[in-house]
Amino acid sequence: MEIAMVCTRVSLLILILSLCSPYKFIQSPMDFGPLNLLPTTTTASSDFGRILFQSPSAVLKPQSSRDISLLLGFLSGSSLSKVTVAARGAGHSIHGQAQALDGIVVEMCSLPSEIEFYKGGEGEISYADVSGGVMWIELLEQSLKLGLAPRSWTDYLYLTVGGTLSNAGISGQTFKHGPQISNVLQLEVITGRGEIVACSPSKDADLFNAVLGGLGQFGIITRARILLQEAPQKVKWVRAFYDDFGTFTKDQELLVSMPDLVDYVEGFIVLNEQSLHSSSVAFPANVDFSPDFGTKSSPKIYYCIEFAVHDYQHKNTNVEQVVEVISRQMSHMVSQLYSVEVSYFDFLNRVRMEEMSLRSLGMWEVHHPWLNMFVPKAGISSFRDLLMDNISPDNFDGLILIYPLLRDKWDTNTSVVLPNSGSMDRVMYVVGILRSANPDDGCSHHCLQELLRRHRHIADTAGARIGAKQYLAHHPTPSGWHQHFGRRWEQFAERKTRFDPLLILGPGQGIFPRSNNAAYGS
Ligand code: FAD
Prior knowledge:
- The protein is α+β, with helices and mostly antiparallel strands.
- The protein has 3 domains: about 115-230, Uridine Diphospho-n-acetylenolpyruvylglucosamine Reductase, domain 3 (2-Layer Sandwich), CATH 3.30.465; about 235-470, Vanillyl-alcohol Oxidase, Chain A, domain 3; about 480-505, no CATH class.
- The protein has helices spanning about 1-20, 65-75, 135-145, 160-165, 175, 205-210, 245-255, 275, 320-325, 345-350, 350-360, 380-390, 445-465, 480-485, 490-500; strands at about 30, 35-40, 60, 85-90, 105, 115-120, 125-130, 150, 185-190, 195-200, 220-230, 235-240, 265-270, 300-310, 335-345, 370-375, 400-405, 425-435, 470.
- The chain is globular and about 70 Å long.
- The two termini are about 35 Å apart.
- Flavin-adenine dinucleotide (FAD) binds near residues 170 and 220.
């Protein structure tokens, strides 16, 4: 044991020297004692965005939390080293957030995929203990076997638990249960100092809160305890169309005010034929709606609300009746309400069906210049106008999601940044501009740069004018990050000093660039 530790330390020293050397010599798998450190791969330097490709010098495929602790413990103990480390979940970031230029990428999916359940009795909670590299789809598949499921989701499930908890994790259930970070009971985290810490709201709460929505800056999540609830067997899934933005948002706000009846609320802008039939693979209703989209100079756009009601077969709830009660209060376009009943699994896994369809058309592995923003309720109309001034509906490829969230479902002690709540509105919105740019369809370098420039303009203008904040944020400069955090910057930076003083973690976010051997704040 002792000998193994000494070997590991010596090997790590060689590693650090090799990474700091101008002549990188990691070309083949290296024996770093028990650490499975490998030469870089193309996967480690790419992500879903396909915009940035930063190559690390090595990849760690950890077999246990201890492997990560050894690596970080050694790097944080050596002021010699400038080596940075990024945890990589499923790599579904847009702007290289899980990349580490010339550093080490820790591939979280190499951790043994452990999922353990505790099923509470009547009146007790149920939960699952899962490794940080487990994907939500795996947790769903396993938990359904026990009739259970997490309460809060993302739209797409091929994302890791550690990856979404480092951001927030939102979807149509967020209005009811809060984001995924509001549904975690406990974490195991390896800090930037290499310490393995079990933390929760009552133990090492500051680390717990820092890591949730912490953009991978304070520690690597190796385990999480996720709250579960009874899973419905089926879901009644409804879509209703609107031709007026004010009516659309008013109805969305009505729906989120009825959490006893409604289980999911989202919505999207119908810009063109393609968005009208968005995710029609998963939503197999016969949509008999042929709107007039106007002309290029005078486009007409529409809106679609999606809501869902869970169907628990043993409860004998009449979901048809529940939908009827809800929809009677809505003001959608006449006859433009469609519904389908699908299994709970298919409902949650709906984006995977779209993925398979897009893959078969060669349209999945393209550039994704996405922009997500949290918008205060008071500014949602101006945000819509800003958006429409900066996109052309006739050639927009992708989806624009808009749906309301409720502030009081978010814990403001976590690291997540929301718009200031000056007006005390309980409602805020999330808007996701989920755009594809296909080089084979004429959108290569120049076109992509132009789309990114426009998104930056939207983000900057909406930030300055209406106090909107980016979700899954990307800021090219540290000063952009200072502005993003606003008055929360000091707390974020202080937590960094405490949990990752040598600025080793999360270099791809660009929040704390590592300058010459300085610890943050020194
Ligand atoms: P990665 O991209 O691998 O990592 C993201 C960040 O987290 C990086 O900074 C990384 O260093 C850090 N990180 C990763 N693992 C850990 C860990 N174990 N511990 C500490 N830090 C870690 N998001 C939503 O909220 N709602 C949605 O509905 C939604 N839908 C999406 C649909 C698609 C098709 C895609 C591509 C993305 C979607 N996202 C959504 C965004 C997604 O939640 C984030 O991009 C998330 O980071 C992806 O998880 P990942 O496992 O791929 O993380």
